[in-house]
Structures are given as structure tokens and as C-alpha cells.
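seq as requested:
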Amino acid sequence: MKSGKIYGRGVVDEKACIPPMVHAAGIARDLGLLDGITLWVCGSVMEEDCDGLCLRHLIETEKLRPDYVVLGEPTDLNIKRGHRGRMEMKITVRGNRRTGRTRSAG
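C-alpha cells:
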């Protein structure tokens, strides 16, 4: 964080939505709207690298079976059914391994 702004990979994805979700959950609790309801707020890490593994753990290990899910992905303020998309690829390169410091030797 620098000058009140968050920088980094995926900064807009889920990081900006978690505080208002937690705040809204607190308001709902205070208003008695969550009586008899279990509410989970899940903030997973490394979404791009281990897509869905954190939620899979909650489903398989904790036996979580949600009736509703709110996703915090950016949608231009439109309600969406969820985001889909993933791409994996294998890239083969030739050459010698080097660091940025010794790249001229590669």
C-alpha cells in the first residue's frame, strides 16, 4: 500500500470487495438478519495460480454447501452469474538459465 492505494497483481479482483462484504455481514448480523444462518466470507489467495483449490478445500473438507454465493469479481456493477475462464499452456524455450543480473550470459 502506498499513499492509500493498493498495488500489485490482482489488486482489483477480490481485495477491494472483501472489506465491504465483511462490513455488510456485520450490519446484517446487527439487524438480526442472520439469525439461524451461517455466513462464510472466504478470501482465497493465489487465485490465478491455484484456481479454485481454496474453495474446493472448504467444500470437500469442511463439507460447505452454500445456498447462495456472492463473487467479488469486477462486473461493471452488473449482476453476473459468475466468471468463467482459465487458460494453461506449456511453453518450451531453449537457452541457458540466467537471472536478470546475468542475462547477457544466456
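Helices lie at 11-15, 18-30, 53-60.
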